[in-house]
Specification:
CATH architecture: 2-Layer Sandwich
Order of helices and strands: EHHEEHHEE
CATH topology: Heat Shock Protein 90
CATH class: Alpha Beta
Strand content: 25-35%
Number of strands: 5
Strand order of the largest sheet: 1-2-3-5-4
Structural class: alpha+beta
Length: about 130
Amino acid sequence: MRVPRSIVPIRSGEDVVRVRQEVRRLAIEAGLGLVDQTKIVTAASELARNTLDYGKGGEATMEIVQNGPRRGFRIVFEDHGPGIPDIELALKDGYTSGKGMGLGLGGARRLCNEFTIASTPGEGTTVTIARWK
């Protein structure tokens, strides 16, 4: 069962802060513990920043999800930016196409129970993450 909960546009640095706040609120509502809340907020913050900086803006769609007895929280980040030509390379620690340390995508992946990424050069990127209770 999925319950759509919140869509946050990502167009500015203030929107990245709004994503973090909304993720925290919904993670608490989903019943995630403090450690899981911190992990999903940290991952979401990184992905929201990537959506803004590399994807030239987009949106984050957040939902509390139920799969049988499991309850969790899922976020989908979508942009229509330049895309990622080599996803495997982009996930490697130390790789950066910008000014960062190259820990963002791989670090976000390690903080989540589920992580998927799809990207088409010239069309954009979609990253889906989830954390389960």
